[in-house]
Structure formats: structure tokens, C-alpha cells
Amino acid sequence: xxxxxxxxxxxxxxxxxxxxxxxxxxxxxxxxxxxxxxxxxxxxxxxxxxxxxxxxxxxxxxxxxxxxxxxxxxxxxxxxxxxxxxxxxxxxxxxxxxxxxxxxxxxxxxxxxxxxxxxxxxxxxxxxxxxxxxxxxxxxxxxxxxxxxxxxxxxxxxxxxxxxxxxxxxxxxxxxxxxxxxxxxxxxxxxxxxxxxxxxxxxxxxxxxxxxxxxxxxxxxxxxxxxxxxxxxxxxxxxxxxxxxxxxxxxxxxxxxxxxxxxxxxxxxxxxx
Length: 273
Prior knowledge:
The longest helix is centred in the middle third of the chain and has 21 residues, at about 130-150. This protein has about 270 residues and is an alpha/beta fold. Helix content is about 40%, strand content about 20%. Strand 7 (about 185-190), helix 7 (about 200-215) and strand 8 form a beta-alpha-beta unit. It has ten helices and ten strands. It has a single domain (about 20-270), classed as P-loop containing nucleotide triphosphate hydrolases (Rossmann fold, 3-Layer(aba) Sandwich). Mean pLDDT is about 85; it is low at about 5-10 and about 265-273.
């Protein structure tokens, strides 16, 4: 069985794995995020939904350290990660994907995974010169795990292809599998279903459920409400950069403010089959 989570990460504990308190971000005097406050429950799949321009991707950028927060606080487990450097946040176990996949195009599919582990022995000159057996053992373990992940995600036969040669759907899978290779405790997925065919949507949904079963918490931006209904335990609704509501999809259908601001007839109609 594949192991996704690095249980040594400081994100451990009993409370929410992530807590956002009044985070704000302005661009040219316009608040893209305006006091958003929500928790991400541990070992659950949480959807972040809302109309275009609600600030969803900006929130993910703020959480992952890609942008600086103007005010507010973000806590990962017991660690305050507000405006922490993104590589430090990643080492604490928070990984993310992007709306448009950002593969390392000049590397092979397999190499994309081999560079993903957070801390590798080969990054130390001391280890290179004085602990070569440690390096070889780690390289062998990383290779075995990368091959296992590629098999799981249906990319093994493409392992020697350059990443830039992949189709759009394959690049989505590569970016997700590269994140898995880094052993996240919290995985932020920015529209993982966007631009892929229905069959692949079902596969990605299954992969995300498998992550949850293996102890990974997922926060995902998603516009496909059928997917949200099917796989997400919790939903956070953003509108105009603020948290409008949180709850399950069934609870949100009863929230008039949510229905008026975003979901309208879609959410009133219930899930599609």
C-alpha cells in the first residue's frame, strides 16, 4: 500500500490542520481577499468554491507562501506560517498544484518525481563525500517509490518521456503525483478537474479519495459541483474575498445567502446523476 504522508511533519495534532484568521490581500487598493476566515479539518477533503473573482486562487497563493498576506494569520497545525518562505512551508508538509500545470518540461516524467522529496541526503556536501552509502540507499528508495506512484497514476509507460510532451490531462496527473511524492500532510489542489475529460475526472476523484484514506488532508478549488458533492466532506464558500459560509453541500443548499451569491438554481436542484 502506498504511503502518502510524512508523519514527522509538525502539522500533527488533534485540531484543524489549517486555520485561516482574517487574511487579507489587496492589489492596487482592491481587496482580492477581504478577511477570509475558515478552518480545514484534518483528514478530510474540503472544497473551496465561489464565483469567479471570489479570491479562491489568491487564498491558495497566500496559504502556500506564493504571495504575502497583508493582514491576518495562517496556522498549519501548531505552527504559524504567516508570510513564511514557501520552501519552509513545503518542508512542513503543505504542497500545492496550480490551475495551469507547472511541470519541469526539460526533465523526464520520472525525473519530475525524483526531485520532489522535501529533504534529500544528496543536498549535503558532507553526505556526498562521507556518506555515499546513505545516498545510494536513499536514491534507491526514492526510485522505488517514484515507480510505484507512476504505476498508480497511470504514468509508468511515459516515465522516460519529457514532461513537456505530455497531454494536458497527463500533465495534471504528473503534477498531482509529484506532490504525492513529496509526502504532503496537506495538499492544496487548484482546480484539479479543469480541462480534463469526464473519465479522467472520475480517476482524479478516486485518487483524491485514496489520499484521504492514507491520511492526507486535501483543500481543493473546484467548480464542478458534482465532484464536490461526491468526494468532499466540507465546503467553504468565498464571495468577494470573504468567507460566506461553511458546511456540507446539503447544508449550503439551505443557506439563502449562498444560493443568492453563487449557487442559485444549480445548488437548489441538488446533485446530478
